[in-house]
Amino acid sequence: MEIDHIFICIEDPEKLAKILTEFGLTEGEPNSHIGQGTANRRFFFQNFCLELLFLQQVGRALSPLTARTTLHARLTDKSLDVSPFGICFRPSPNNIKVENYSTWQYFPLNIPKTFIIDIFDAPISEPLYEYMDFLTPSSRQIHVQRRHSLGVKNLTSATIHTPFAKLDSELKQDLEKLEIIKFKTNETHILELEFDHQRQGQRQDFRPELPLIIKW
Predict the structure, then answer these.
(1) How far is CA 207 from the centre of its chain?
(2) Stretch 91-104: mean pLDDT, rounded?
(3) Which residues touch 88 (CB under 8 Å, ≥6 apart)?
(4) Can you tell me the mean pLDDT for 156-185?
(5) Which DSSP state fits 107?
(6) How many domains does one find in the chain?
(7) What is the DSSP code (8-state) at residue 36?
(8) For residue 207, what is the domain's CATH number?
(9) Parallel, antiparallel, or unpaired for β 49-55 and 2-9?
(10) How many angstroms separate the CA atoms of 196 and 46, rounded?
(11) Residue 110 pLDDT exceeds 90
(12) Residue 169: is its pLDDT beyond 80?
């Protein structure tokens, strides 16, 4: 499997989406997750999507359908014990097979009933790991016609900086071994994204507004 999209849990979508557009990213269509109580602002790239996820309906996010996802806690709890990130994977020909790990199946109301989302069992101090076997690289072709004035195209590396970087699970070990995600020790949670192998030699740190670093 490989990264399809990563979300950052936020509180002020208008402000934070504006920060990214003023930086040089072109925003795609937003999306509301019916029945889940969340919505997002999205930024599409050739092989990846960055999402800003925010809470719309508290009751829906705490419902029996959604509560186990831990989304409400990730969106509201700002302590270091909670990761504000979610990493969503799609199929790819590598050695990571979902059936080799402990997962549970989530059936949100905003996707067809025949689609399955596998959520990996992991502590809330780690990102929420999701696998969507119905996604393919071509799933986003309708979106990638947009061009970013920044000139970035492809995600080439993703690093999670976290107080919980220890490779203490088989999933984390395999993700790092296959260079799908890197984990580095840090006092706070930060998502670092590298585009196009950082050929332009540039770097932007969006803290404190967003726990995000972009290199291009």
Answers:
(1) 17
(2) 90
(3) 3, 4, 5, 6, 7, 130, 131, 132, 135
(4) 95
(5) -
(6) 1
(7) T
(8) 3.10.180.10
(9) parallel
(10) 11
(11) no
(12) yes
Give the pLDDT band of residue 114 (cuts 50, 70, 90).
Answer: confident
The 10 Å Cβ neighbour count of residue 216 is: 21
Owning domain of residue 63: 2-215
Token pair listed for 181: 């995600």
For the record, the structure tokens of 116 come out as 């399955």
State both tokens at 64: 């029996």
Residue 38 has pLDDT above 70, yes or no: yes
**Amino acid residing at 211:** P
d(CA 124, CA 72): 11
- Report the amino acid identity of residue 166: K
List the alpha helices (DSSP H) in the chain.
13-23, 58-61, 71-76, 170-177
* Alpha-carbon distance values, 38 to 66, 112, 130 (Å): 10, 17, 16
CB 72 within 8 A of CB 66: yes
Q: Is residue 179 pLDDT above 80, yes or no?
A: yes
